[in-house]
Structure formats: C-alpha cells, structure tokens
Amino acid sequence: MDTMEQDGIPMQEQISRILSRIQDSTNPDDIRADIARLVMFAAEPGKTGDNVTRRLTRAARRLGMNRNRVRKFWYGEVERVTAHEMNLICRVARAHLQRVRRIEALRAEIRDLDTDMGDTAYVGAG
Fold first, then answer.
1. Rounded to two decimals, what is the model's pTM?
2. What is the DSSP code string of 47-74?
3. Which helix (H) or strand (E) holds 120?
4. φ and ψ at residue 9, rounded to 5 degrees
5. Is 79 helix (H, G, I), strand (E, B) or coil?
6. For residue 125, what is the DSSP state?
7. Radius of gyration of the chain from Cα atoms?
8. CB of 11 within 8 A of CB of 4?
9. What's the pLDDT at 48?
10. Which stretches of the chain score pLDDT less than 50?
11. Rounded to the nearest 5 degrees, what angle is found at the Cα of 52, between the Cα atoms of 48 and 56?
C-alpha cells in the first residue's frame, strides 16, 4: 500500500523525520520543501497510472484545501504558510502515519497467523 520510498527510506520513516524537523526549522526553503513532501504524502497511496492532476486532487480532498493552493505547496511555490495550513497538513500527515503503522502491525499479525497455521494440522483434514 504505502511503499513510496526515497533513497531506500520507507514513507513512514520519512513522514516521522519531516514532522520532527519541521517543528524546529526556521529556514523558509527547508520548510517549503518539507511541506511539499507532506502534501505529496497526502496523495498516497496512489493508483497505477495516476497523473499529477489526479494526485493533486486526491491530496486537496484529504487536506480539505483548494486544489490550486495544494498545487502551490506541491511545487514549493508558496510564499507564506498560515498556522492553520501548517497544522492541517501536519495533522493529516500524523493521521496517515498512524494508518501506515497500523497496517504494518496488521501485516505482521497476519504473517504470524500464517506461520501458526503452517505449523498446525487442520481438524478433519485428510
């Protein structure tokens, strides 16, 4: 589902790092780049064949923002970010991170169940 990796770093780790870094950053260019990345994550998971327009629309819907404003964030063209926008983008990123972590926990649980099932004879089999 959420396999968007950059430089071999899983999406959930990237989101975590950005959320930690963005709180302390004072460099506008760094903040703009981090927000752009979080907005891109809001469009995930993507569908095969998605173009940028579809991804922008999905991100805008999830963020509850105007698509043109999301496009400016996406491309780092925003001059000023309101506190409301920053809080909204970070809140959506945190929620996404929680979903990804929950999915990973469920996948691990399923793997454990599959392993247990492989070690158990089925009642009535034969």
1. 0.75
2. -TT--HHHHHHHHHHHHTS-HHHHHHHH
3. none
4. -100, 120
5. coil
6. -
7. 19
8. yes
9. 87
10. 1-3
11. 110
